[in-house]
Design brief:
Helices cover 26% and strands 27% of the residues. The chain has helices at 15-28, 68-78, 94-104, 126-134, 182-188, and strands at residues 4-8, 33-38, 42-43, 46-50, 56-62, 83-87, 111-115, 118-119, 123-124, 137-140, 153-157, 163-164, 177-180.
């Protein structure tokens, strides 16, 4: 039975590497995969999925308003599509998330979408929110904060190297983000409770 999987985590948890490895595994067995990436990530006129360890591959680009169900169906008419992967899925529109769910329904193979759930500053992207609600299978990919605890939040650094508390929601560039636990995110965003708050201690 086909399923819609949503792998979620902060940045730099290895999700893109996992996606490329999974696609390779399908293709090594003679199956066809279809890869999508948000239009923010491209090389010339071609979408590009690249991991921080150096793996990369070309991919279909998706933008607001694109009908992903129709695009996959058209491709499937010519070549059987065994699995669809979406990188940077947080940039999906809510309707596009539902389109992915409809792709999974009649087919025999899974559809995976991998990418962060949170946007700057500490809120859900629309695509992530929809996928968390409708995916058949949610899988967390973990990475760690500087303190060694699980990182669940992201802060963006400004040109001065300090944490930005305001600004554009989307800024492409892995070097401008830092992964943090919720406690350290609150501290960096000025939301932490006083150390002597009665009845509570910091975890």
């Amino acid at each position: 039975m086909a399923k819609l999987y949503f792998h979620y985590a902060t940045m730099n948890a290895g999700k893109t590497t996992m996606l490329l490895q999974a696609s390779y595994n399908y293709r090594e067995r003679g199956m066809t995969t279809m890869l999508f990436v948000a239009g923010h990530y491209r090389k010339g006129d071609t979408g590009l999925i690249s991991s921080r360890i150096g793996l990369e591959t070309e991919a279909e680009m998706f933008r607001d308003g694109d009908d992903l169900f129709a695009r996959v169906a058209e491709h499937h008419d010519h070549t059987t599509v065994h699995c669809v992967f979406v990188d940077e899925a947080q940039f999906l529109e809510e309707e596009q998330a539902w389109q992915l769910a409809r792709i999974a329904r009649p087919a025999e193979h899974p559809r995976d979408v991998l990418r962060p759930a949170h946007r700057f500053p500490g809120k859900l992207f629309s695509g992530s929110r929809a996928l968390l609600a409708i995916a058949d299978d949610l899988r967390e990919v973990r990475t760690i904060c500087r303190c060694g605890r699980k990182a669940t939040m992201v802060v963006r650094l400004g040109a001065d190297g300090k944490v930005a508390r305001q600004g554009e929601q989307v800024a492409i560039g892995k070097d401008v983000y830092v992964l943090l636990s919720r406690r350290h995110w609150e501290e960096e965003m000025g939301r932490a409770a006083p150390d002597d708050f009665i009845g509570f201690t910091k975890a």
